Automatic annotation (TrEMBL):
InterPro entries for the chain: Bact_Cytoskel_RodZ (IPR050400), Cro/C1-type_HTH (IPR001387), Lambda_DNA-bd_dom_sf (IPR010982), RodZ-like_C (IPR025194)
Keywords for the protein's UniProt record, in alphabetical order: Membrane, Transmembrane, Transmembrane helix
Membrane-spanning residues: 126-144
Keyword hit for Ubl conjugation: no
Cytoskeleton protein RodZ-like C-terminal domain ranges (all copies): 241-301
Record carries keyword Transmembrane helix: yes
This protein's name: Cytoskeleton protein RodZ-like C-terminal domain-containing protein
CDD domains, sorted: HTH_XRE
GO MF: DNA binding
Organism: hydrothermal vent metagenome
Amino acid sequence: MSNTTSNSAVSNEVNELLQQKSFGTSLKLARKKSEVTYDQVAENLLLSIEMIKAIENSQVNVLPSAAYTKGYLRNYARLLGLPEDEIINDYLRRVPNTEPKVELVPKTAEIINDDKKLGRDQITKFVSSTAIISVLIVFVFWMFNSDDEQVPELIDVQKDLLIQDSKALTSGVNIESNGAIKNAGLKPAETKTNAALNNMGVVKKTVTVDTATLNDSQVKSSVALAESVNQPSNLLKYQMVLTATGESWCEIKDSTGKRLCFRLLTNGVTKTMTGVPPFNIFLGDARVVSIELNGKLIGHESSIPKYSKFVRINIDKDGEITLAPKRKK
């Protein structure tokens, strides 16, 4: 009696499903006829039971996008031996077309003019930016590759001061009968001369005049003698040559604060510069850079920290190396 009741219930459910005629109905009916459980379907299709029920109930609003759902329906139909395309087509008829419609609207004259103006503005900005960048590149290149042989006009200043003071000296010289030169009220001029010489670091030489007359030629000789005085050692320039066998950042300044090098040295690059020692040198990878000072190879390798590549050192005019203090931030 119970079997008859169960068969009757299944028959009634099957009839109801046939009347619905949806893509999920065919799948559900085939599953029940094959006596396949939800768990078995879920295991084969790698889907959740909730998703399988949504497919069988044709719940389009619950199912994912059409691309995924078509794949699920195709696999489910293959599992139950049903025609795949028929079920998928039935599903597509029930899915609302959610793709947005693209409406082509012709551009008005105002929109076209705005587009042209925008294009011109973009071109103007691009040209301006390119010009600014080019100027900056040229300026930086000029700064770091300027002539290292530029010498301050200190010599010309010294000449002018010495000529002026020599003329002032001659205006106060009296020659005695025995040929000796007597200073008559020369303190202001002498003070000015001494101050000028001291400021320039020039060592004065004593000039003895044996003639009874101090003429213009003798004044010029005195000036020439003063000009021939050796300049202080810190004004003498030395040539430094860096040769790279790899990549290393390099920063070099001389004692006057002039930047001689501020660039990346690459393999095979040789950088020649002149400056006033001592030199302050920073090398990012000191082991790939060799240093020569006036043709003398400087062995700086021993100054490189054991577990580091970079080094900051000072090199004096004799090629002696000392570690430079770290920069204060």
